[in-house]
Write a structure and sequence with these properties.
Blueprint (H helix, E strand, L loop, with lengths): L8 E6 L4 E6 L1 H7 L2 H12 L13 E4 L13 E6 L6 E6 L3 H8 L3 E5 L6 E6 L2 E6 L8 H11 L5 E6 L2 H4 L7 E3 L3 E3 L4 H7 L2 E8 L8 H17 L1 H8 L6 H6 L21 H7 L1 E5 L9 E9 L7 E8 L1 H7 L8 H14 L3 H17 L4 H4 L9 H13 L3 H6 L3 H8 L7 E2 L2 E2 L7 H9 L10 H8 L7 H21 L11 H10 L6 H21 L12 H4 L9 H16 L6
Helix pairs in contact: 1-2, 2-20, 2-22, 7-21, 11-13, 12-15, 18-19, 18-24, 20-22, 20-24
Length: 589
């Protein structure tokens, strides 16, 4: 590492004592690079075994990488914590301005410990950390809290505003943390951990300069990477239509989960497709800091005020494939305006949209099957496609007016353990499924990935790549997914946006890291990636995770995929082969 690189500095914040300090930890970054690697090491260091996810012993770790602020699309912040939603390893990423703000404030990582007795918010500007009474913004919806904080703390330089909504305050296990206006630490309940600590918000900013080893070589490598990003056709599509472009192709493959995966084909897909939303509702595109792609698509919903003729209110909201899947096709909803209203409700309350959509889909099917009645739903009758009822249910999930909604606020697997319907409760490792019914690869990613997310080993992409090929057994899937997962540990330690994974090959990464003072060859990067993944599983298994006990919902074995009807035995064999390849067949590392 370069001698004066602020990356090696870790900021520690104790909410209980309302104090902070910093330490230089170059050994962490030299061994694990940054991001996911450093965060997982700090999580093991500061989270005691068996810690209550909602207790003061559960730390929150934020970490960034050495390429942040230096190279395009190195724009993510990694957060790690013990998840209140799964009861195990929690990892979530967000774009926006957070990564560059942390870097320019002079830190490579932030560790938040303890808990406050009363609501508060924190500001971090360079080496100054301040604690403020947050009672005035506690109870505010996320958008109103952000507005209040901008007025109170105008600031200057690069900065980010992270905050929770009512869902985090009321400890819904899948509450998210919102950063800026349209980016989120969406999954695993980071907003819930903030709420348990009475931490409403954080503002982080700074004006540090970042050193490079060789300015001439840095400029050369930067220009090469920037040019490749601008000319990469796979990235251009994200600018044009965003990830919502996946809806129509997946529907044609019959791989688009619909109505709680009772089907994998949605007849109304054209009305909520990326093409239709861009043509009729796209208001503008925005980008994360230091990204030329601008993949964030904002819909503009223009509606009249009820009591004022010719006066209109325009609401902007970001949409992407996962939101349209979870709140659209999974709920049989093909009305774009209704979809946007539901998205907006979930946004201002601060919920994970993917989990919320899967939960609402389970409620609808359970209601239709008689497992729950109007007694549980408080006279609401969920029907596929009726967004007004879903909006009311979302509010009830947050406000929890009865026992049913208190249970639903802990996720679909937990709810199905009490009311039944476990066969169609679509969760993996207690984390609700993303929008891919593409084949064995997608579900093996949900099962074996450290986050149980499609962003782990990208099995949905492997499915599409090999569709039509014969004779590929469980061993093939285990080997390919593990290789990809190890590669993604490096990308996530550099906090490279995964859309740019085709640009940032190991060779390019090695060259870029030289300018930041790291001398790592391709074979060394692969070893580090594998070590980071193992480290995550050290934590997971310490907290009770078991490959053998993973639950596979029967619904995914009933609805045909592009590979036909999936076999449970095939999935279980591949999971155990994955374990053997990663851990050598041992229960402990």
């Amino acid at each position: 590492m370069l001698k004066h690189d602020p990356l090696q500095k870790v900021l520690y914040i104790d909410l209980t004592g309302r104090r902070s300090w910093s330490e230089y930890r170059p050994e962490l970054f030299e061994k694990y690079i940054g991001g996911a690697g450093v965060a997982s090491a700090l999580l093991q260091e500061h989270c005691p075994q068996g810690a209550d996810p909602l207790g003061p012993d559960n730390p929150i770790i934020f970490a960034v990488g050495p390429l942040v602020g230096l190279f395009p699309m190195a724009s993510k912040t990694v957060a790690m914590f013990k998840s209140p939603h799964t009861g195990n390893f929690g990892e979530s990423h967000a774009g926006g301005r957070s990564a560059v703000s942390i870097r320019l404030a002079g830190y490579g990582a932030i560790v938040i410990k303890g808990a406050s007795q009363t609501p508060l918010y924190i500001t971090i500007f360079n080496d100054k950390v301040q604690f403020y009474d947050g009672r005035g913004i506690w109870g505010m919806k996320s958008n109103l809290a952000a507005r209040a904080l901008r007025e109170r703390e105008p600031g200057s330089g690069m900065r980010t505003i992270m905050r929770i909504g009512l869902a985090g305050e009321r400890l819904v296990s899948y509450a998210c943390l919102i950063t800026e206006t349209y980016r989120h630490f969406g999954r695993m309940g980071l907003g819930t951990v903030f709420g348990s600590k009475k931490l409403k918000a954080m503002i982080i900013g700074g004006k540090q300069s970042l050193p490079v080893a060789d300015k001439k070589n840095y400029k050369k490598i930067y220009d090469e990477i920037f040019h490749q990003i601008l000319t990469d056709s796979s990235l251009k599509k994200y600018h044009d239509l965003g990830t919502a472009l996946n809806l129509v192709p997946l529907n044609k493959l019959r791989a688009l989960p619909t109505k709680n995966l009772q089907d994998a084909y949605f007849e109304g897909v054209e009305r909520i497709s990326g093409e239709n939303l861009a043509e009729n509702y796209l208001g503008r595109r925005i980008a994360c800091t230091h990204c030329p792609i601008a993949c964030i698509h904002l819909a503009a919903l223009r509606e009249p005020y009820l009591d004022e003729p010719y006066f209109y209110k325009t609401t902007f909201m970001s949409y992407d494939y996962e939101l349209v899947y979870a709140l659209g096709t999974m709920l049989g909803l093909d009305n774009p305006k209704g979809l946007f209203h539901l998205m907006d409700e979930i946004e201002v309350l601060g919920l994970d949209a993917i989990t919320t959509g899967v939960v609402l889909a389970w409620i609808t099917e359970s209601f239709n099957k008689g497992l729950i009645t109007k007694r549980e739903t408080i006279d609401l009758q969920p029907k596929w496609g009726e967004y007004q009822t879903y909006r009311e249910m979302v509010r009830n999930i947050v406000l929890q007016p009865n026992e049913f909604y208190q249970i639903v606020a802990k996720g679909v697997e937990h709810t199905s353990e009490i009311y039944g319907g476990k066969d169609f409760a679509l969760a993996f490792g207690r984390n609700e499924m993303p929008g891919y019914h593409t084949g064995y690869g997608s579900y093996l990613t949900f099962l074996t990935g450290a986050r149980h997310s499609h962003l782990d080993s990208g099995g949905y992409g492997l499915d599409r790549k090999i569709l039509g090929k014969e004779g590929l057994g469980p061993n093939f899937y285990a080997e390919e997914l593990l290789k990809e997962e190890c590669h993604r540990q490096i990308l996530c330690s550099l906090v490279i946006c995964l859309f740019a994974r085709g640009v940032y090959t190991h060779e390019v990464i090695s060259q870029a890291l030289e300018t930041a003072g790291f001398n790592l060859k391709v074979d060394e990067l692969m070893k580090i990636g594998r070590e980071i993944l193992k480290q995550k599983y050290v934590f997971k298994m310490r907290e009770g995770f078991s490959f053998e006990r993973l639950s596979i919902p029967k619904r995914i074995l009933e609805t045909p995929s592009p590979f036909g009807v999936l076999k449970e035995g095939f999935l279980k064999e591949a999971v155990l082969l994955y374990k053997k390849l990663l851990l050598g067949g041992q229960n402990e590392i």
